[in-house]
Amino acid sequence: MRLLELPDEIKALLEKGEIEAGHAKALVALDPKLALGLARQAAAHGWSVRELEEAARRAQAPKGSAAKKSAPRDADIVALERELSEKLAARVSIQHGRGGRGKLIIGYHSLDELEGILARIR
């Protein structure tokens, strides 16, 4: 029943099959102007219901709250990450914490890549 509250243009997209009932349900609680814009984008780009829900969340999020401002990274840490990445031929991340503690993270995408990294370390 709440779908009947949607703007006429959204109901028309639903009737034409350009969006589905799941899309419309995701739009019901939104401001009509925002809902209409998102419905048009979903129809034009063939968004899934999940993609539409994510776009609605992003559109409603207060500006600036989504991105936390982090402190600038230490240049020595960045240089060390780059050096280790080159030597290991893998993505390396260093999370340096207080008191000298931290984590060294080496990323890999397959067991073969892991074996190559281990061979370089040994």
How would you portray this structure in words?
The structure is a single chain. The protein is mainly α. The chain has two domains: 59 residues, Arc Repressor Mutant, subunit A (Orthogonal Bundle); 47 residues, no CATH class. A hairpin with a 5-residue loop joins strand 1 and strand 2. 55% of the residues lie in helices and 8% in strands. It has six helices and two strands; from the N terminus they run H-H-H-H-H-E-E-H. Helix 2 runs parallel beside helix 4 and helix 3 packs antiparallel against helix 4. It is elongated. Strands 1-2 form a two-stranded antiparallel ribbon.
Outline:
The chain is mainly alpha-helical and 122 residues long. It has six helices and two strands. Strand 1 (92-96) and strand 2 form a beta hairpin.
